[in-house]
Amino acid sequence: MIATAVSGIIFANSRDEAIEKMTKVRSMASLPFGGRYRVIDFCLSNLVNAGITSVGVITKSNYRSLMDHIGSGAFWDLDRKRGGVHILPPFNISGARRYHGYVEALYGAMDFLNRCNSDYVVLCDGCVVANVDIAAAVDFHIKKNADITVVYRSGVQVKDVKNMMTMKLDSDDRLVSVNFPRSIAADDLASLGILVFRRDLLIELVNNAYENGGRNIDVDIIADRVGDLRICGYAHNGFSAVMTDMKAYTEANMRLLDKEVRADLFNPKRRIMTKNRDDMPTRYGTKAEVKNSFVADGCVIDGEVSNSILFRGVTVRRGAKVVDSIIMQDCVIGENAIVSDVILDKKVGVNSNTVLKGTADCALYVEKNQKL
Amino acid sequence: MIRKKCVAMLLAGGQGSRLGVLTAKIAKPAVPYGGKYRIIDFPLSNCINSGIDTVGILTQYKPLELNDYVGSGKAWDLDRLSGGVHILPPYQGQKGGDWYKGTANAIYQNIGFIERYDPEYVLILSGDHIYKMDYSKMINQHVETGAACTIAVLEVSKEEASRFGIMNTNPDGSIYEFEEKPANPKSNLASMGIYVFSWDKLKKYLTEDEANRDSSNDFGKNIIPAMLNKGESLRVYRFGDYWKDVGTVDSLWEANLDLLNPRIDLNLSDPNWRIYSRAGEFPPHFISDKAKVENSLITDGCEVYGNLDYSILFENVTVEEGASVEYSLVMPGAVIKKGAKVRYSIIAEDAVIGENAAVGAPPESVSPEQFGISVVGDNLTVGKNAKIGPKTVITENVEEGASI
After folding, report:
1. Interface of chain B against chain A, CB under 8 Å?
2. Which of A179, B49, B94, B267 has its CA 20 to 30 A from that of B288?
3. Are the Cβ atoms of A285 and B294 closer than 8 angstroms?
4. What is the pLDDT of residues A29-54, one digit of tens each?
């Protein structure tokens, strides 16, 4: 049997509670993002772009939309005879229960970990939007002879995030301490939830932590072992966003209107792949007036759109105005309707002449399938 | 092998020489269309939407890009254990081999492929047209009438009729005569180049035709007339929806801009009849606050900072600030630099139009004889401030400030 050098694991129900309203009908990893993506596309593409062909996706709840999205994995070239993508639902070992914390989650996925036969495993938090060079992180891990490598964010980032592990490094990039602050300062080195382990060590650490009642990787494995394990930090210098709440989600989407963010996140050398829907290109009508917007295929625009993100298949009728908003797949904005500072989930219909307004500080969120 | 009721054979070997520089490196069916499609997406999507999952693609001219594009057929749901899509180039056998001598010979050389599926019917298609058609309705008519061959026809105007192969029919739809580009057409039913044959009949006529050394081994010139001579039952299948031959630069340009015409019924987003394509992995497109976009189609990967009117941007096109694109097609990866003006033109893949250059001219600015669509070939650069007039085809780089 040929061993693949590296395999990947994605936690799909990461921080579901952070954006409760939107994760009511889906997992965090299947949250729609950036016009045609779901958050997990970034993790999946990062792993695949690093040459990783065996990926486990650990789920807990609400995973119908995720399974539908991933399918056979073909869109990420992960429909493989050897390896490929495996959805790892809860209850997949006897006596298992819904996990609390990633230690239990990994314990429940021990079958996958035992079988994947790679030298290294990369763990990815499914709430991170970034184009990370994972191949470089693994090279770093090997070169540093590290036990664990934590990818941390540095450079352009969405500011308003909470509840992330921060760390201090010595001159040799080795972790000397970690911290769990309530809010993150600009110069904090915050973990991006991407961790590289030697596979045998990961299995051992998870088994030990599980037996000792540990739940959280950051707390019960990393913080606990900073002193005796060689844990290193690898800087991701590009754009990154962590979906720690609705505001971070909104800001991360809006940052796509920045040319440099787009160039970094959609780096042509490491493409972000997603499920294709075969929409036709977007049609702009005679009365269309679109400014500073990021627009996916399949839209029909006859109204005004500015500073907004339009997902696939959105219709903006004549006289309608869409301002500072995120409009998800297949929404229809009726004639002369006004929508500003709003997040419309999938298939929302806004009737003619209706006015929907949120505030710059707090976007108005409308649930899936609503007709207003 | 599971038996297939109908196998489709797609003739994709033509050079498409009237498209000139646009088919200098690729076969005609691989020519980009409509922002994110290629011509071949239409017959392939029609096949899968009509329930035909076994398609042989006959290639000959510059097949590399076409082979690469079709791949396993996955994009059209044609990657199947049984059937699916197969690229069929000419091949060498024990007694030697030959290029495809004509459309009929191409099918003749692949009798072995067809027989593996033991079909009752064979559908012959070409990769030259933009249309959405339910082939299963045509096959049903063929079965019900018991014809040996059914030919799809379109009503054209009397003036146009002399450009087509014309079917002269009896009131019941049976064909008594076929005339190729007649000077004085007797009917206005033009062949669309789509045939359904009962396989036993087609095999017989292909074999006889092959034995005839004087034959040019062509469906229109040889097979159909031979069948009529022998008194076989040939019938027309009338088609009334959008159909366009994209064999020339002008017709390719026109067929593209038809997508922007609200009076033309060519909806490519019908969820019940999707046109599939093998799209690249590009992010959504971006329209800047300096841009003005009207009456246009734009797809993934584009970045628009300039003005667009009545145009189609294919994948990954950049239109810089102050540039304007009107009544034009800009194919994948092309860049229109600052202040450049592109009008009534086709800019092929990965071409670069330099700053303040001007390509093409609107019909009202020149005399009717001078007017025509200009084309800039793929991967070419038009230098800064260069001027390219109407009806001009650019096949090599144009220097800065040049006037052509």
Report:
1. 34-36, 74, 259-260, 267-269, 274-277, 279, 281-289, 291-300, 303, 308, 312-313
2. B267
3. yes
4. 899 999 999 999 999 999 999 999 99
Q: Which of B260, B267, B297 sits opposite A282 (nearest CB)?
A: B297
Please tell me the distance from the alpha carbon of residue B256 to that of residue A173, in angstroms, as a whole number: 56
Instruction: Please count the CA atoms within 13 angstroms of the CA of B173 that sit on its side-chain side.
Output: 17
Structure tokens at B3: 């038996």
The torsion defined by the Cα of B95, B99, B105 and B110, in degrees rounded to 10, comes to: 70
Q: With contact defined as beta carbons under 8 Å apart, do B104 and B111 qualify? A: no
- Once rounded to an integer, what is the mean pLDDT over residues B395-404? 92
CA distance A187 to B344: 53
Q: Ramachandran region of residue B190, left (φ > 0), alpha (ψ -120 to 50) or beta?
A: beta
Kindly report the pTM of this predicted structure: 0.92
Q: How many helices (H) and strands (E) does chain B have?
A: 9, 33
Shortest CA distance to A279 belongs to which of B375, B148, B34?
Answer: B34
With tokens 């005839």, the residue in question is B212
Domain A3-265 part of CATH 3.90.550.10: yes
CB-count burial class (<10 Å; 0-12, 13-18, 19+) for A213: exposed
Residue A23 phi/psi, 5-degree rounding, is -95, 10
> CA B88, CA B94: separation in Å to the nearest integer?
17
Give the model's pLDDT for residue A3.
43
Query: ipTM, 2 decimals?
Result: 0.91
Of A310, A325, A326, the residue nearest B283 (C-alpha): A310
Judged by a CB distance cut-off of 8 A, whether residue A308 touches chain B is: no
Rg (CA), chain B: 22
Instruction: Enumerate residues 9 to 68 of chain A having a beta carbon within 8 A of any beta carbon in chain B.
Output: 34-36
What tokens appear for A23 in the block?
A: 């994760």
What stretch of H or E contains A191?
Answer: strand A189-198
* Positions of CATH 2.160.10.10 in chain A: 283-366
- A310 inside 8 A of chain B by CB: yes
Q: Residue A281 and residue B35: Cβ atoms within 8 Å?
A: yes
**Who's near A206: CB < 8 A, 6+ residues apart?**
A103, A106, A107, A110, A113, A221
Chain B residues whose CB is inside 8 A of the A262 CB are 283, 286
What fold, for A283-366?
Answer: UDP N-Acetylglucosamine Acyltransferase; domain 1 (2.160.10)
pLDDT grade for B390, boundaries at 50, 70 and 90 = very high
Pairwise CB contact (< 8 Å): A284 & B282: no
Do B289 and A292 make contact, defined as CB atoms within 8 angstroms?
yes
DSSP state of A234: E
Partner residue facing A281 (CB), from B36, B289, B295: B36
User: Which residues of chain B does A290 touch, with a Cβ-Cβ cutoff of 8 Å?
Assistant: 287, 291, 293
What band does A94 get if pLDDT is binned at 50, 70 and 90?
Answer: low
In chain A, where does the domain assigned CATH 3.90.550.10 lie? 3-265
Q: Which string of DSSP letters, residue by residue, matches A124-163?
A: EETTEEE---HHHHHHHHHHTT-SEEEEEE-SSB-S--BS
Residues of B in contact with A77 (CB under 8 A): none
Nearest to B289 among A286, A291, A298 (CB): A291
